[in-house]
Amino acid sequence: MRTWRFQRGDVPVGCLVGMVVLLVVVLISIKAIPAITRVGEFEKRVRELADRANRRDYNDKRILRDILAKAEELDLPVNKKSVRIDRTEHRMKIRIRFDYTLDFPFYTYVWHKEIYEDRPLF
Predict the structure, then answer these.
(1) Neighbours of 76 (CB within 10 A)
(2) What local confidence, expressed as pLDDT, does residue 106 receive?
(3) Is the Cβ–Cβ distance between 49 and 66 less than 8 Å?
(4) What pLDDT, on a 0 to 100 scale, did the predictor assign at position 53?
(5) Is the confidence at residue 68, as pLDDT, over 90?
(6) Backbone torsions φ then ψ of 84, nearest 5 degrees
(7) Residue 30 and residue 39: Cα distance in Å, rounded?
(8) Helix, strand or coil, per DSSP, at residue 6
(9) In terms of Cα–Cα distance, which of 116, 112, 57, 66 is closest to 86?
(10) DSSP secondary structure letter of residue 82
(11) Quick check: 83 pLDDT over 90?
(12) Do the Cβ atoms of 121 and 54 come closer than 8 Å?
């Protein structure tokens, strides 16, 4: 006896599972992609400031002020306590630690982020 595979009401299970997986990926992407791009832009700015540390007018206070201004502009949870700037005669080290919270419909993910830049001074 032949079976009818394409009868009305017949839904392949693989299609439903694929749609559920696609829905989950889209929901995660909607929240995660903007956060990742903001943090990437912030890292780029910190890298630029670390490269400019050789200049006379870029002292530690100015670098800290610029870092905090960029973090506020991007709405990142960075404050003075989370930024550590160490300058010696030959090296400039910037370390930033913060926790970024991503709220999903059924789960809250805390992203522990650390940015570390170490540059030589000439």
Answers:
(1) 20
(2) 86
(3) yes
(4) 87
(5) yes
(6) -130, 120
(7) 15
(8) coil
(9) 116
(10) G
(11) yes
(12) yes
Q: Rounded CA gap, 111 and 119, in Å? A: 26
Q: State the pLDDT at residue 13.
A: 80
Measured between alpha carbons, how far is residue 70 from residues 38, 45, 107, 108 in Å? 10, 8, 28, 25
State residue 4's pLDDT score: 63
> Left, alpha or beta for 111 (phi > 0: left; psi -120 to 50: alpha)?
beta
Phi-psi category of residue 75: left, alpha or beta, with phi > 0 → left and psi -120 to 50 → alpha: left
Q: Compute the C-alpha angle 111/115/118, nearest 5°.
A: 165
Inter-residue contact 83 to 97 (CB < 8 Å)? no
Q: Does residue 43 carry a pLDDT above 90?
A: yes
The tokens for 52 are 């400019």
Cα 15 to Cα 44: distance, rounded to the nearest angstrom: 41
Nearest to 26 by CA among 37, 38, 18, 16: 18
- State the CB neighbour count (10 A cutoff) for residue 42: 21
pTM exceeding the 0.70 threshold for the entire prediction = yes
